[in-house]
Every structure is written in structure tokens, then in C-alpha cells.
Amino acid sequence: MKRLWLATLVGALTVLLAVVLIGFRQAPDADAAPQTADADGQFQPIQFPHDTHAGQFTIPCQYCHFSAERSVDAGIPPMATCIGCHQEGIVDGRTDEAQAEIARVREYYASDTPIPWKRIYKVSDHVKFAHMRHVAAGVTCQTCHGQVQEMGVLEDMAPEAGDLRMGWCVSCHIERGASRDCTVCHY
Ligand code: HEC
Ligand code: HEC
Ligand code: HEC
Ligand code: HEC
Ligand code: HEC
After folding, report:
1. CA of 71 relative to ligand 2 center, distance in Å
2. Cα 74 to ligand 1 centroid, rounded to whole Å
């Protein structure tokens, strides 16, 4: 039963692949599409600048995204990570805007409400992607996400990410001798 199911699945995938190969580019799933800005015109609930943190103050990516090297997800840091620096009297911010935004981070923390960040990079549920395998193979964050340390508030995927399409994954796998087996990437 399991084998029959698998054979049917692989058959169906192959047909669909042919469609992909002749150039039909399906729009990403709705849940994978970037979300749009809120009514107040801000995309993210907190204007968190990567360039200040990872660029100017050279905080390593994995100080915040600490599960990237050991897990499937790179992870978004918990508020405790932010408060380590943004507790009152430590990093308060130099400008009025920075102070106001940091005060809002403290409000989330004080009310024990996780910051509802919007997700930017997301593959469909039928695709398996594991950060740790790529980090272990020495592929840098920037290869896939661009020069994040030079970006302000992240809103869109970097062009380096090739819209997270299959051709993007597969062409790098060919280049670097990684697996192109369908079942390696698909459930
Ligand atoms: C001080 C903590 C911190 C550091 C350092 C940091 N990040 Fe982030 N990162 C965050 C937070 C918070 C978010 C969620 C908000 C957002 O999308 O900007 C995030 C989001 C992201 C996202 C988008 C995730 C998604 O799909 O929504 C990527 C990609 C990313 N970071 C990569 C990096 C890279 C690469 C570096 C190093 C050059 C880095 N980050 C350094 C805190 C950090
Ligand atoms: C290792 C220390 C450190 C950590 C951890 C950290 N920050 Fe910061 N943050 C800074 C520094 C330094 C500044 C620059 C302050 C300034 O401009 O005076 C800053 C500035 C900011 C600002 C002001 C924006 C601006 O325009 O300058 C915001 C908002 C902010 N951080 C949010 C966060 C959030 C959210 C997190 C957790 C995901 C976080 N920070 C984690 C050190 C840190
Ligand atoms: C080989 C390409 C590749 C590399 C290298 C890579 N990422 Fe990602 N990243 C992705 C993809 C693809 C997704 C979407 C994954 C998903 O939907 O499960 C993603 C998602 C994310 C997210 C969203 C939240 C999460 O937990 O998945 C963050 C944050 C992130 N990456 C940060 C990083 C950081 C930091 C590094 C370096 C340590 C890194 N990435 C290296 C491709 C990559
Ligand atoms: C920039 C290059 C690059 C990109 C882009 C990339 N990968 Fe990879 N990937 C690698 C390398 C290199 C390895 C080999 C790691 C190893 O040998 O352990 C790998 C390994 C993997 C593995 C583990 C393979 C195994 O044999 O178990 C999976 C699954 C995977 N990648 C999925 C993806 C998916 C899904 C995408 C696109 C969303 C993607 N990769 C994009 C370079 C890349
Ligand atoms: C290196 C990873 C990887 C490998 C290997 C891979 N795929 Fe994919 N595949 C993806 C990604 C990523 C997507 C795009 C998902 C999305 O749109 O979010 C995708 C999408 C698809 C789709 C849906 C059509 C589309 O464009 O979204 C089909 C069908 C498919 N793959 C079949 C296959 C078959 C059959 C094989 C083996 C010949 C294969 N894939 C090998 C990563 C891979």
C-alpha cells in the first residue's frame, strides 16, 4: 500500500516537473507569499534594523539566529535576547525614533507578548529545507539571504534567494555536488 502510494506520488510529481521544466512558473502558495503592510503602513510590528545590529555593531548572525547550525530552522530570537541589551539603562537608543521603538520592545517584553514578526522567507509545506545541513556545508547566510548586515528593516526576499523556487535550489545543488534526489527535498 505504502509503495503504491509512493509510486503514484512520484509519478504525479514527475508530470508536474515536466510542466515546471517547460517554463510554467507557478505562483508561490498563498501562505508563502510575502504579507502586505499593516494599516499603519508598517510591514513589521517593530522596525528592527539589521544594518545597525549586524553591520554597525557587528553582532554575529548566529547570536540571534542561534539554532541555524543545529536545527532545521534558523529561528527568530526570543525577546529575552533583545532585552539582554535593551533593558533600561543599557542600550536606550540615540535618536528619538530609536528610543521610541526600543520602548515598544520593552512593552512587549513587560506584557509577555511575543513580537508578532511577519515571516519573509518560507517554502511550501511539501518542501524540506534544513538550515543546519547548509551551515555545516559552509554555505554562508549571505549566499541565500543577501547582504543582510547592510539592510535596514527587512521586507522582501533578497534577489539572491531566487524566489525560493526549485530551480534555484537545484542549480546550486548541481554546482556544489549536493543531492538532486526528489525525495531529499520533498515529503
Ligand atoms: C540582534 C538580533 C539579530 C541579529 C544579530 C541578526 N538578526 Fe536576522 N532577524 C532578527 C529578527 C528579530 C528578525 C525578525 C524580524 C525581521 O524579519 O526583520 C530577523 C529576521 C531575519 C531574516 C528574515 C526571516 C523571515 O523569513 O522572516 C533573515 C533572512 C535574517 N534575519 C538573517 C540574518 C543574517 C544573515 C544575519 C547576520 C548578517 C542576521 N539576521 C542577524 C534578529 C537578528
Ligand atoms: C548585543 C546587543 C543587542 C541586542 C541583542 C539587540 N540589540 Fe537592538 N540595538 C543595539 C544597539 C547597539 C542599537 C543602536 C542603538 C543606538 O542607535 O543608540 C540597537 C538599536 C535598536 C533599535 C532602534 C532602531 C534604530 O533605528 O536604531 C531597535 C528597535 C532595536 N535595537 C530592537 C531590537 C530587537 C527587537 C532585538 C531583539 C530581536 C534587539 N534589538 C537586540 C544592540 C542590541
Ligand atoms: C542554502 C540557502 C540558505 C542558507 C545558507 C541560509 N538560509 Fe535562511 N532560509 C533559507 C530558506 C529556503 C528559508 C525558508 C525555510 C522554510 O520555509 O522552512 C530560510 C529561512 C530563514 C529564516 C526564517 C525563520 C526560520 O527559522 O527559518 C531566518 C531567520 C533565516 N533563514 C536566517 C538565516 C541565517 C542567519 C543563516 C546563516 C546562519 C541562513 N539563514 C542561511 C535559505 C537559506
Ligand atoms: C547556494 C547553494 C545551495 C542552495 C541555494 C540550496 N542548497 Fe541545499 N544543499 C547545498 C549543499 C552544499 C548541500 C550539501 C550538504 C552536505 O553534503 O551535507 C545541501 C544539502 C541539502 C539537503 C540535504 C541533502 C541530503 O543529502 O540529505 C537538503 C534536503 C537541501 N539541501 C534542500 C535544499 C532546498 C529545499 C533548497 C531550496 C529551497 C536548497 N537546498 C538550496 C547547497 C544549497
Ligand atoms: C534541492 C531541492 C529540490 C529537489 C532535489 C527537487 N525539488 Fe521539487 N521543489 C523544490 C522547491 C523549493 C519547490 C518550490 C516550492 C515553492 O514554490 O515554495 C519545488 C517544487 C516542486 C513542484 C511543484 C511545482 C512548483 O513549481 O512549485 C513539483 C511537482 C516538484 N517540485 C517535483 C519535483 C521532482 C519530481 C523532483 C525530482 C526530479 C524534485 N522536485 C526535486 C525543491 C526541490
Report:
1. 25
2. 9
